């Protein structure tokens, strides 16, 4: 047995399927075996592996035991001369295993090997080659010096950025995303250290291989795609703490006491520095637009009040303006939130509704105030007009200046190019239509050097010209017809940051790709997340509050229609305070249910869309999917009023 491939999976079913497809294609050239260790996923990963990849040695953990321990479970029983740790969000080329095994055979001093990795947009990933993270190198990395001086042998050691990424180099640290190791070396230095739950374990093992007298190599003569970041979000505060604490474990294990203390101090500084940046970044992203809105509205109201006093020759007590105008501003601001004016993408009608509701509320409150604190309805009306105009102008400005999530009506329609044989390309086209409504045009590109039909506007070798001439926004490769090596080559050749890429696996209902560094591993699947859209969540909660409150008020009359009166009252109170909802999913033990967006448990359920019918698990599961995909407040009302007699269940 030449090669044992070990993949640890946690809730990335679609990526795992794509990865395994590429792995088994590459194993046609090498004698090998595949282990998948699942860390208690709930997304249907295990069922998918059993159904589609029966040759896989599947280990099903009943809890998330972490990356190190899960890999070790397979490494202890793997039979290959070489052991490969491979992330599930990767794609290997058809000859990747053949090339790396041949290199290791030719270099008996090699204990470990890593390859050239690119992300989902075709960009080189610097973690493909790394040096030992000594205290000074970690300092240069943490505080940005390595990024400022990437070609410096002093500052660029963390990612060895001064080394040519197209040449083979001896390195110190391998990436856990693709970590090929000689079994003989592992027998000598040991397996992954299970003190590392996640992150740092690849650095530790790489360093131990070097200490054991072996060499680690960076081998760029084959490439892989590593989508990275699907299982963990690297911009999160949690990632910062977990990763840098792993570095502290590494320092205490391998550095002298003095250096370990210095390293730990540096890392702790980095933790709080990076965590603060992460929190600040998240706050700024969410708060910058609302804060600007509040400031401009408040300034506008003060200008209106000032001009009103000058024109009408009236003096409004300063203390009234100081508390009244900020209060008006907050009412208009929260009216915008309530009406969905801050939902993304922008819908101007919601901003209009928010401004109108806010003006109405202020006028009603104004009418109830004592005469001595009423100073002018005209200021309120002019303020309402100003707020309306401000939101319209500012949203148009965000649309044209920022774009993306702030586009009016959502993201712009895209122009797609599908690369593959015509039959498969048309299948993918249908899938694209089902999963993406933002389509401007779809062009077909032949997978071979010659077009097979008039419908195809070019060939794979002409892809760069197709993108340029037809203004293509996104390229979809049909994996059935285009080799992974060709896909990776083209992604690197034409990927300039402006074009997105997706890959369609044969006989699947999803397209995997990456749209930006913040959304690594984005994919198109059937949209079952409608129920979790902000407007629908808000409407669902409004229905729960209003109806439960109404039913409690009418309960002295309604309660006599229920057998379990105590349960009726309990349900209404729990719904009112958010513990329950009127409508939830129907209970069913079915794999598709594991993929549904999370919502509150309901007194009633989606299966009640159909009355007086015996439904099997498959039918109930379909109704749950329909409920999630097509949810509206009218659907909830229909279920509630059809089943009023069941509110005591």
Describe the structure.
This protein is an alpha/beta fold. 47% of the residues lie in helices and 15% in strands. The protein has 21 helices and 18 strands. The chain has helices spanning 13-26, 45-52, 67-75, 96-106, 135-142, 145-148, 183-189, 201-211, 237-254, 257-312, 318-339, 348-368, 377-401, 422-435, 463-469, 484-494, 534-553, 555-558, 565-576, 617-630, 633-642, and strands spanning 3-9, 32-39, 57-61, 82-86, 90-92, 110-118, 169-171, 178-182, 215-226, 414-419, 439-446, 456-459, 474-478, 500-504, 511-514, 523-524, 581-584, 602-605. α10 (257-312) crosses α11, α12 runs antiparallel to α13 and α17 crosses α19 (565-576). Residues 229-235 and 515-521 have low confidence and may be disordered.
Summarize the structure.
With 649 residues, this protein is of the alpha/beta class. It has 21 helices and 18 strands. Helix 10 (257-312) crosses helix 13 (377-401).
């Amino acid at each position: 047995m030449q090669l044992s491939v070990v993949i640890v999976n946690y809730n990335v079913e679609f990526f795992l399927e794509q990865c395994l497809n590429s792995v088994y294609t590459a194993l046609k050239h090498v004698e090998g075996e595949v282990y998948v260790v699942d860390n208690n996923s709930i997304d249907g990963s295990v069922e998918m592996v059993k159904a589609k990849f029966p040759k896989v040695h599947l280990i099903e953990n009943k809890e998330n035991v972490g990356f190190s321990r899960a890999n070790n479970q397979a490494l202890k029983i793997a039979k290959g001369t070489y052991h490969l740790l491979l992330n599930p969000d990767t794609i290997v080329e058809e000859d990747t295993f053949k090339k790396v095994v041949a290199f290791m055979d030719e270099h008996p001093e090699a204990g470990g090997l890593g390859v050239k990795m690119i992300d989902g947009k075709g960009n080189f990933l610097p973690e493909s080659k790394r040096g030992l993270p000594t205290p000074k190198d970690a300092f240069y990395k943490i505080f940005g010096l390595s990024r400022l001086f990437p070609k410096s042998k002093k500052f660029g050691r963390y990612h060895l950025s001064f080394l040519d990424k197209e040449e083979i180099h001896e390195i110190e640290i391998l990436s856990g995303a693709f970590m090929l190791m000689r079994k003989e070396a592992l027998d000598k230095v040991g397996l992954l250290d299970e003190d590392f739950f996640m992150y740092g374990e690849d650095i530790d093992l790489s360093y131990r291989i070097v200490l054991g007298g072996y060499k680690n190599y960076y081998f760029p003569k084959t490439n892989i795609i590593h989508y990275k970041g699907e299982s963990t979000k690297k911009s999160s505060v949690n990632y910062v703490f977990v990763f840098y604490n792993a570095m502290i474990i590494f320092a205490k294990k391998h550095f002298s006491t003095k250096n370990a203390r210095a390293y730990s101090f540096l890392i702790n500084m980095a933790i709080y520095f990076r965590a603060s940046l992460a929190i600040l970044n998240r706050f700024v992203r969410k708060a910058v637009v609302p804060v600007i809105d509040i400031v401009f509205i408040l300034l506008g109201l003060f200008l209106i009040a000032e001009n009103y006093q000058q024109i009408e020759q009236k003096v409004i007590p300063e203390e009234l303006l100081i508390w009244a105008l900020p209060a008006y501003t907050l009412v208009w601001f929260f009216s915008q939130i309530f009406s969905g004016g801050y939902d993304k993408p922008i819908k101007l009608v919601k901003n209009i509704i928010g401004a109108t509701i806010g003006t109405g509320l202020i006028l009603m409150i104004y009418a109830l105030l004592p005469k001595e604190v009423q100073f002018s309805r005209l200021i309120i009306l002019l303020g309402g007009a100003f707020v309306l105009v401000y939101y319209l102008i500012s949203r148009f400005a965000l649309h044209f200046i920022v774009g993306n999530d702030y586009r009016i009506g959502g993201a712009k329609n895209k122009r797609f190019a599908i690369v593959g044989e015509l039959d498969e390309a048309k299948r993918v086209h249908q899938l694209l239509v089902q999963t993406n409504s933002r389509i401007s045009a779809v062009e077909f590109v032949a997978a071979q050097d010659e077009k097979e039909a008039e419908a195809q506007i070019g060939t794979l070798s002409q892809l760069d010209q197709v993108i340029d001439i037809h203004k293509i926004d996104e390229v979809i490769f049909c994996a059935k017809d285009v080799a992974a090596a060709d896909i990776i080559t083209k992604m690197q050749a034409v990927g300039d940051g402006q074009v997105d890429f997706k890959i369609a696996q044969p006989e699947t209902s999803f397209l995997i790709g990456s749209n930006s560094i913040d959304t690594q591993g984005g994919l198109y699947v059937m949209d079952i997340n409608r129920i979790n859209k902000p407007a629908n969540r808000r409407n669902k909660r409004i229905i729960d509050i209003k109806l439960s409150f109404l039913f409690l008020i009418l309960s002295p009359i309604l309660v006599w229609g229920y057998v379990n009166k105590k349960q009726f009252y309990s349900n209404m109170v729990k719904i009112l305070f958010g513990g329950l909802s009127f409508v939830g999913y129907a209970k069913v033990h079915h794999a598709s249910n594991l993929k549904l967006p999370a919502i509150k448990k309901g007194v009633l359920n989606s299966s009640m869309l159909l009355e007086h019918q015996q439904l099997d698990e498959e039918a109930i599961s379909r109704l749950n999917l329909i409920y999630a995909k097509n949810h509206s407040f009218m659907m909830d009302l229909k279920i509630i009023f059809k089943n009023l007699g069941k509110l005591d269940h």
